[in-house]
Amino acid sequence: MSFMRMRALVAMLVLAGLAACSLPNPYVPPSPRPTQPPSGQPPEVPPQPDGTAVPEQPPPEPVPQRPTRTFTLSPPSRALVTQAQEQAQNGDVTAAAATVERALRIEPSNPLLWIELGKLRMREASYAQAESVGRKAVSLATGDARAESAAWTLIADSFRARGRNTDAREADERAAQLRPR
Hints:
The protein is mainly α and 181 residues long. Helices cover 59% and strands 0% of the residues. The chain is built from 7 helices and no strands. It is flat, with a radius of gyration of 30 Å. The termini are far apart.
C-alpha cells in the first residue's frame, strides 16, 4: 500500500471515530428534564409508592467553622530555639539554622519552628528557601491564625527581598486578614 493511500485510510478512520463519538449512545436513556414550578410556589412532591406523603427534609447542617488551635513549642524545642536565637545574635546563622533543624526533628509538624527556620533563611539571603519554608508553615498552621499570619508575613518579606512587590502586597494582605484583632 502506498504512503498516500495509508495516510488517507488513517484520516478516514480518525474522522469515523470522531463521528461515532458525537452520536448519542443508544444504550443510555436520556436524562429527564427537571420541571420548574411556577414562581413563588413550592415544588410539588409526589407521594411515596404506598400513598403516604414524603416527609419534609431536615434543614441543611451549618457550615463547620475552622478549628481554632494555638501552637506552642515543647520544652526541648523551646530550648533549642532559644539556643538558635543566641547563635544568630552572635552572627552564626548557619549554626542557628542547624539548631532549629534539630528542633524540627522533634516537632516536624509545628509551624512555629518552620517560621523560625524561614527567618534564619532570610538572614542568610536564601529568599526562595524562606518562601518555601513559609509555605510549609502555612500548610501546617491551619486553625492558628497567629501562626498562619506570621507565615504569610515571612512569605511577604521573601517576595519583597526579591523585588516581587505585588506578590509581597498580596501576602501582606493575607497576613493582615488573619492577624488577631
